[in-house]
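With this grant's support, we have paired protein sequences with backbone structure tokens. One protein thus recorded is set out beneath this paragraph:

_____
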Amino acid sequence: MASQPSAQYTAEAVAVAPPGGLAEVSGGQVRNRPQAGKGDSVTDGAETVRWRLERSYAQDDRDAARDARIALEERADLPPSVLADLLIVVSELVANAVRHAPRVAGGQIMLMVTGDQTGVRVAVRDPGSGFTLGPPDPGREGGLGLVAVDRISNEWGVHTGEGTTVWCTLALAGSPSSERL
């Protein structure tokens, strides 16, 4: 049975969003600040973050990738080619986390998508300790999700530490897939 995802739309790129507000990290200090509306822009130095979507899913939520796609389809302010690419990479990264991350009691899959004037950044974190990426096996069904992410995104990578985070970026100045595929 699928769990209900927790979701927040905000207009600030920050590490943690407490209930009812945003956390602003400044000089190692975390300060709460009122949450901006879904379409508002917040200026943080030279960078303006137009929007942010966060979702949290149970590790066994087989509907997580579909839910993430549905939540992102509301982003009518993105060029259609970028939105199409975004839906693919989010679906692949969330599905990979649900399928491959080791099960941990109370473990969560976290999705964060932020958009600004230059592009979109996606990060999916799971409680795993990383993975080894090998070449695709042509005799195996599936296994091409990260190949698609590599082809579609401008850049992508993996961070390990407290779990595993796979991230990627998409440029707004045209779809990277049109240049790289």
